[in-house]
């Protein structure tokens, strides 16, 4: 599974393993928080907005 991880994620994970989350935030700062926020924004948009929209669109044509 680690083959599919981007290089920056591997580097961040290595920093986290060495010194914990404090060191990760100290070295990378707001980039980690922004990346985390962006990932969940995209994921939740797909799960809770786009998929139900297309499902409802298909089912509404049945009635």
Q: Mean of the pLDDT scores?
A: 91
Please identify the oligomeric state.
single chain
Task: Return Rg in Å.
Answer: 18 Å
Return the string of H and E elements: HH
Total domain modules: 1
Count of alpha and pi helical runs = 2
Question: What is the overall silhouette?
Answer: elongated
Look at the helices and sheets and give the structural class: mainly alpha
Question: How many angstroms does the end-to-end distance come to?
Answer: 44 Å
E-strand count = 0
Structural descriptors:
63 residues; mainly alpha; 2 helices
Short description:
With 63 residues, the protein is mainly alpha-helical.
Description:
- The chain contains two helices and no strands.
- It is mainly alpha-helical and 63 residues long.
- The chain has one domain.
- The chain has helices spanning 7-28, 30-60.
- The relative contact order is 0.07.
Write the layout of secondary structure elements.
Blueprint: H1 7-28, H2 30-60
């Amino acid at each position: 599974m680690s083959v599919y991880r981007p290089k920056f994620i591997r580097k961040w994970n290595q920093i986290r393993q060495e010194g914990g989350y404090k060191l990760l935030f100290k070295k990378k700062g707001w980039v980690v928080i922004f990346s985390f926020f962006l990932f969940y924004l995209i994921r939740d948009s797909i799960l809770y907005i786009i998929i139900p929209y297309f499902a409802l669109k298909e089912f509404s044509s049945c009635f």
